[in-house]
Design brief:
four-stranded antiparallel sheet, alpha+beta, Alpha-Beta Plaits, about 25% strand, about 150 residues
Length: about 150
């Protein structure tokens, strides 16, 4: 009799634990999903890492100012940008701040490609090269924490 009671109790406790664990998994996923949905309306930073040979650093900065800055200034949701340079690695970091991800991603790939082509042509003409010496290493997005 006591053995049957222990088996039943064990089954109920096991079932309760399974339900409890499953409910935590479900709620945890919901919390994460809700957070990511809300992120679309919060400020976001576009992160671009580029290989910029030190001998061309000034040319790169000038091309950035001549092509990308005016174009970005006219984009809805653009809040500003910062440029950093690591001389030892010959890498640049460009951080572009947007009001939210929706506004940033509303810019068409075609439009960005057209501006990038203008940028590359300016660089190649300025440096008298047949290719753009500034290689994109990585790109990503950073969410403002607060």
């Amino acid at each position: 009799m006591e053995l049957k009671f222990l088996k039943k109790t064990f089954r109920w406790i096991s079932l309760a634990l399974i339900v409890l664990v499953a409910s935590f998994q479900y709620n945890f996923a919901s919390v994460n999903a809700a957070t990511m949905i809300n992120m679309k309306e919060n400020p976001i930073i576009e992160e671009l890492r580029l290989r910029v040979p030190s001998q061309y650093k000034d040319n790169w900065i000038n091309a950035e100012k001549e092509v990308w800055e005016p174009w970005l200034a006219n984009k809805k949701g653009f809040l500003g940008r910062e440029i950093f340079y690591n001389k030892e690695k010959e890498e640049a970091l460009v951080l572009v701040k947007w009001a939210n991800k929706s506004l940033w991603k509303s810019i068409s790939v075609k439009e960005v490609s057209e501006i990038q082509s203008i940028f590359e042509e300016n660089v190649k003409n300025d440096l008298k090269l047949d290719r753009n010496p500034f290689e994109l290493i990585d790109e990503g997005e950073l969410y403002v924490q607060g």
